[in-house]
Fold each of these.
Amino acid sequence: MNRRFHFFLAVFVTVVFAVILLSSPFTSSFACVGSRALALGGAFTGVADDTSATYWNPAGLARAGSGIVTMHTLNLRHEFNYDDYIGVSFSRRRWGIGLEYVGKSMQIERWRGDLSSKQIEGWEEDWLQIGGAFTWAYISFGLNMRYIYSENTKSIREYSYYKEEKDSGLALDFGVLAEFGPLFEQGTRRMFSAGMLIQNFNKPELLGQEHIANFRPGLGFRPVENLLFSLEIYDATRQCFHKPQIRTGLEWVISHPDLPGELALRGGLYHVNEYSYRAYTGGFGYLYPLSGKKALGFDYAFMMWIKTEIVVHLLSLVFRF
């Protein structure tokens, strides 16, 4: 079978899979930016080697290469914390820049105390992010500026009640990413990586609520070039949770003479040490080479919450140039 057949077969399987998922029931949940990062259990700060680095760790933009990624939620629309995403990045030797849009929304329905009426609360945020990074020796430093437009609504249909609040602000993130250890044969990756992100370090306030600074250290380990283990501590200083949250991930990239491009299998555990927020994650990705450095592919991820058995599905399209 030729290369084109493999490619179109992969696209066909993806579309069919997406249609099946879209027909599944859904309910409220939340997760994170990017299908690949989600499949790795959200343990991506110490890796951050693709376009979504603008969000995960802007220091990674200096190593992420150039590309475009789009992400859409396959289910849980408007009940999932990250509905839509598109990002583009450019990197050249020791520097890189990234631009992203993230659309977030949630809607909660609850009965009032006397059960006479139902209250509907909606929350939406639009993010526009621009990040930059530079590398000195084996260490990269990055800064991300995030413009946030926030809108909250509350309505009670039985009483014709409707309230709307709007606000906007600027959040700043700072990241560091270092690679060290033996250099693999292709000369693009090292065995170890370590990174950290300080998210919202300026603590912006929107709609009367402060966005808390979140310190997130992470590690990456590659025993061989095509195998990655990742670890991240979310909220290491306990600003959001009563204890730091641990995330872990695994990625295995498969190359075969009969398979043009690369197939990646992924798995992870989200919030290992907190049962209420613990979830299994997993997925796969496929990247098909075009010409030169250009490639086209997709990433799929799922997240299954252990306590509620709710399942989130994400699909991303990837173009590298």
Amino acid sequence: MNPDRFDALSKTLAGSVSRRSALTRGGAGVAAALLAFAGFRSRGDAAQLNTTNWYSVIRRYQLSSSTLSNTEQMLRTGLLPQLMQEQGFVEYFVVESPNNVLTTVSVFTSKANFDATEQSTSNWVNQNLPDLPNPDETTKGDVVAFGASCAQICPPPPVTPTVVPASPTVAPASPTAPPATASATPCTGIGCPCNGGVQNACAPGLVCCQSQMNGPSIPGGAGMCAAADACGGTATIPPTAPPTAPPTAPPTTPATPTT
């Protein structure tokens, strides 16, 4: 390819873009990946890649006003997604210029990759854009320079979510059962406290001796269980129920003999 002619055509395309802001650009994600692979990680970087073996094809079409809009739409939604699946695809531009002029720019990583795509692209155009005229001008050749601004085409870095560690769940403590309280055996032996006149206050054979407590001998008074012969004063003996007499049968009246 003639470098002077390629440079002149590139300037013409750049001027067309500045006059009309109707530019459809494909493969920006691919270019961004190539820039990142080359080491341009920052969106502020201006990248110049090693374009050895890159291959570009530029075609210029003269369309009518009735077919321009439909052609742009079909190229954007039909051909472009197909090109982006092809091996070696880098960039695809569709530039609209005044007077219904449409220019397409395809860039591949090698001529071999472009040639492998050419047949499928031609078939797609014949099926979906049968009224598309032959290009008025076609320029093909090696890419000798390529530059891009990451600030325009590189996606922003992904935001890494902050992972908040989960708080450990503390299982509630099992309620502790209160210790069993042993049933206290009442003290009724010698020396145990008692109250006078209360039944079973002392063990059998013992009495509630109130003189041991230096108190009066009264029912209900404080005393101490002791043997009856050891009680220095009067012992209060709990009352006992009187014995129950057996029932007495009524006297029997002898029968009077009948005369």
Amino acid sequence: MLRAALQTNSVRLDQPGINQLCLGDTLALQNFSIGGRLFEWRLGDATKVTRIDTSFFTYRYRFPGTYRITLVAVDQGTCKGVDSVSTFVRVLAPVGEAQSDALACARQPIQLSASGGIRYQWQNEGGNVLSTQPSFMFLPSRSEALRVTIFDRNGCVVVDTVNIDVTPALSIRFTIEEEFGCFGLPTVTVTGDVQGTPDNSWVDFGDGTRVPGSSATHRYQAEGAFVVKLIGQTADCLYDSAAVRPIRDIKVPNVITPGTVDGQNDFFQVKWGDEMPAARGSRVELKILNRWGITLYASDDYQNDWSGADLTAGVYYYDVNVVDAIKCRGWFQIVR
């Protein structure tokens, strides 16, 4: 008696009759023929395998497609002599795909993405799961290889690696100093240090002014709160250090009108913008003198509370020291 019989299976022999697999998977081919002295396997891709026994063997297709597998059993000592049986298997190409390798800047987020799956798993080199989404924001601190596993709707799995090449960060520090004149806004000096391997650096004063280098001096044209930055560039990465700097004029009055009915301008007020200099951490020292240089009033911690109430109308002189800012001398009038 001669009867050809075959069965497809997984390599673990736990999926008998399997007719669909993913490219890269290994197929087990089992021979359950009765009789037969010679067996020829035709695998549908021009591959032929000849065997003299019924032991199973494995095969892996190189390309996706639908393949007809035929087993021919031969035994010339039987009445039939030759018998054959066929089945079909479909080899699917996994549709999951990860993005290409990426360049990144240290401590700056980068978006990573994959596609074609119904489930995803992103892992770092330590095996920790970073995300189960197709796309996520990753904050790299060093160069490393991330592994993404993509499960598609056909049950195929793609495991890919996305290499992240991180440009090392620059270490940026700077100080800001203000130099006041007796009138007008201060001159601001930024003194900085950019450590690492910068290609370029510049100071951004926050008012549209940018100066190449790590140190620069600038005079603002208006009061305000400005974000001052020292920026360093290496490769395509920008790193910066920033500080908000309030820029205000120090104002000394040229006239006071104590005792007038409007109640305005009654005191000799030294201002930093609209505030007292104490708001910038400065103490005010004040002397009021007459035209002969005689001190009429003095304070080492002036609080904008002198009105000249005991003085007659006229011209007087001031000596103002806003500690760590300016020293100014000038004249003012008391008008009654």
